[in-house]
Specification:
The structure is a single chain. The protein has a 4-stranded parallel β-sheet with strand order 2-1-3-4. The longest helix is centred in the last third of the chain and has 18 residues. The chain is globular. With 281 residues, the chain is an alpha/beta fold. It folds into 2 domains: 118 residues, Glutathione S-transferase Yfyf (Class Pi), Chain A, domain 2 (Up-down Bundle); 147 residues, 3-Layer(aba) Sandwich (Rossmann fold). It starts with a strand and ends in a 9-residue tail after the last helix.
């Protein structure tokens, strides 16, 4: 199987360990990746400011993938949600599609053929399969308790993203347990991490993050596990900010799922970028 890899803006700038570890894991699992260098921003930052600019930004990426006959795999759940939203709108609204194609044609692009947008976790679960992943695990974890954090954009709006059951998802927990680790039940697993408020209301953003950290810790988790750069930064970089500004120490590191899986598969730590995590695992 082969996908066009969409890494978005935040990962190469701030969470490059997610990209390097995901590439290493997918290579081991024989998932082919194609880098389309012309990809641009998914449009998420302007989605609530200029609707047409958002759709055009996403549609250009979809058209570039369609030109190569490839579906897209996203690492970022915000990018995933944005591309899924744009694809949904273009399919449901022919007038909008004609308007957007009128802009794309200037670059010799058009979006007519549907492109499937997949998230990293959904490819692992549905295309690779849990049993195949288990076969690749060389160093299974034992008695390691993990709190899996889904993030908002993978689950909502459920009609559009169609990632998993929005009320009781299970994909992430099953993938965590494929490594031998135990996925804990924790009350706030589906709550927002607080990232959308960072830079707007830092105090409230940190409050939401602290609640998540406390919830995971009280459930007995040794780590939070993420699969989105925004969530990872919130539980990693912002956790350090909380420690400095509020004098607290929750002592619960956050690890990207590709790092967790990569460790269990025996991939070298330097390829997984563990040293780049701010709260050292």
């Amino acid at each position: 199987m082969k996908f066009a890899l969409f890494i978005g803006c935040n990962i190469p700038a701030r969470v490059s360990q997610y990209e390097s570890s995901a590439r290493a894991v997918l290579e081991k699992l024989h998932v082919g990746l194609v880098d389309i260098t012309e990809f641009n921003c998914c449009g998420y930052p302007v989605r609530n400011i200029d609707h047409d600019a958002f759709v055009l930004s996403s549609a250009r990426n979809l058209a570039l993938a369609a030109r190569q006959g490839l579906d897209i795999i996203c690492l970022c759940k915000c990018c995933y949600g944005s591309l899924k939203k744009a694809a949904f709108l273009l399919k449901e609204d022919p007038l909008l599609r004609d308007k957007i194609n009128g802009q794309l044609v200037r670059e010799g692009l058009t979006y007519e053929k549907d492109v499937e947008i997949r998230h990293f976790l959904s490819v692992l679960y549905h295309d690779v399969g849990v049993n195949t992943i288990k076969e690749k695990v060389q160093r299974p974890f034992s008695d390691l308790k993990i709190a899996a954090h889904y993030g908002c954009h993978a689950l909502r709006p459920s009609k559009i993203v169609q990632f998993d059951d929005p009320v009781n998802p299970t994909i992430f927990e099953k993938l965590v347990e494929a490594t031998g680790a135990k996925s804990v039940e924790w009350p706030l697993r589906l709550d927002c991490c607080g990232a959308p408020l960072l830079g707007i209301n830092d105090s409230l953003s940190m409050d939401l993050t602290e609640k998540k950290l406390n919830s995971g810790k009280q459930a007995g988790a040794a780590y939070l596990c993420t699969a989105c750069p925004y969530c990872q930064m919130q539980f990693d970089t912002v956790q350090k900010m909380i420690s400095r500004s509020r004098g607290t120490n929750h002592e619960i590191p956050s690890i990207v799922y590709s790092q967790l899986l990569g460790l269990s598969m025996g991939i070298e730590e330097n390829l997984l970028g563990l040293g780049m995590n701010q709260v050292r695992p």
